[in-house]
């Protein structure tokens, strides 16, 4: 048999598997089947993966660590497993992998090696937050985590001000007050929806302008849980003024 044909037959498949963001019942039947049958499960956090397996009463044939700290070294070894015929699943701590998680370089290597990639759709904090936000969804921009430095944040705010679309942000509970305060200083009292612990027992959805959200958060002794922030599209009629204000702030910080 021709070696090229033989290698093609042997190749495994790479599965991008979505797992619950909170409620364990959100796992799909297909995800359970694929995870239980896969030769290898590459998990962002192996301890979290084992907890998931215990809750779902499933065991993994082989579980390996794959995260932002080791992805550069693990990519090639995972590709080799796929080329040898192993089926590999990628899972993150929660939700859909590759969304603010590692995996981009691996999927690109898989494409270059003509390896089949399949999405196993399911829970996603991005989509879940959007559909309950009540804000326009005809066009949205996923920002992810904002830069920690204020100068870089303001540059990002300037970019967002050009877009007439709803924006979606992720943030940690430790930095969320700082982010909302910076947003309020730049964008004013635009409408915001802040979601915390989506699908979990302590799920919370706050709606109001940025100043209201900021005031609410500042009254709390401690903020816990995963947070998604959604901002309404900026008023185009005020866009130029907003941009100039942002530029002035950036210049004063340089």
What's the SSE blueprint?
Blueprint: H1 3-10, E1 13-17, H2 29-37, E2 40-43, H3 46-56, E3 63-65, H4 71-83, E4 88-91, H5 104-112, E5 116-120, H6 125-133, E6 140-145, H7 150-160, E7 166-171, H8 176-187, E8 191-196, E9 204-209, H9 210-218, E10 227-231, H10 239-253
Pick out its properties.
alpha/beta; 10 strands; 20% strand; disordered N terminus
Describe this structure in words.
The chain has 254 residues and is α/β, with parallel strands linked by helices. Helix content is 42%, strand content 20%. It has ten helices and ten strands. It has a five-stranded parallel sheet, with helices on both faces. A five-stranded mixed sheet has the order 6-7-10-8-9. Strand 2, helix 3 (46-56) and strand 3 form a beta-alpha-beta unit. Helix 4 (71-83) runs parallel beside helix 5, helix 7 (150-160) runs antiparallel to helix 10 and helix 8 runs antiparallel to helix 9 (210-218).
Distance separating the two termini? 65 Å
Order of helices and strands: HEHEHEHEHEHEHEHEEHEH
Unreliable stretches covering 5 or more consecutive residues: 1-8
In DSSP terms, counting alpha (H) and pi (I) runs of 4 or more, how many helices?
10
Helix content: 40-55%
Query: What does the radius of gyration come to?
Result: 21 Å
Structural class: alpha/beta
Sheet with most strands: 5 strands, parallel
Q: Would you report the number of β strands?
A: 10
| Averaged pLDDT | 89
Can you give me a brief rundown of this structure?
Helix content is 42%, strand content 20%. The protein is an alpha/beta fold and 254 residues long.
